[in-house]
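Ticket closed. Logging final result for SDR family oxidoreductase.
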Amino acid sequence: MTVKKAFDLGGRKAIVTGGSRGLGLQIAEALGEMGAELVIAARRPEELDQAVMHLAAQGVTAHGIPADLGRPEGVSKLADAALERLGHCDILVNNAGATWGAPAEDHPLEAWLKLLSLNLTGMFLLTQAIGKRSMIPRGYGRVLNLASIAGLRGSTGEGSHTIAYNTTKGGVVNFTRALAGEWGPHGITVNALAPGFFPSKMTQATLDKIGEDIKARTPLRRLGDDEDLKGAAVLFCSDAGKHITGQILAVDGGMTAV
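Final structure:
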């Protein structure tokens, strides 16, 4: 197999949650460029419509399915609709997530439970459904989870009051490792990307306050951009990564290395 062929995703079917903007859309662009047909899911239909049009302008076949993955019934509806549209699923990218900022001693229970429901339980239920109904029966699959450097270590300083987010992303890290061990015999790889700081709607408030300080503390002296996850995502989702599983790759400009 040539290297070019190893990265090719022609004929593959992929689901990307939180795929209407930000990091999810970046990954959708990459998978689509390499030939995959996509279902992208998000809560807001208008944002999905815009993303589908954006991808179509790049020559990517994508279908938008509105879904609230913080609710079990929303996960079930997405799994049904995506498999009906695609026929099967080769690649599942679990990107949908949320954050909440509050000191640990004052963190609202409602917010804690919201993040657990979306960032962990929704990811588990969708992966379970797609694995059981499509990947395991076909003996092939690529699961790519979006963790975060916030799940690799604690945090201090201004903008660090995100205990529920950090906790759930730490859960994504070990979910990835545990599932890789369990589903490896089915021909399914399970890996995760752990992004550092990328400009997005989720990170805007933090970057407005301490963005320059973050860049100064990052060895490459920059934030992530619209291209920085694409190559790694394609590696993990293609046959180029067929012998990589249970791994967490920090894409953070070196921040966790120092």
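The chain has a mean pLDDT of 95. No further action required.
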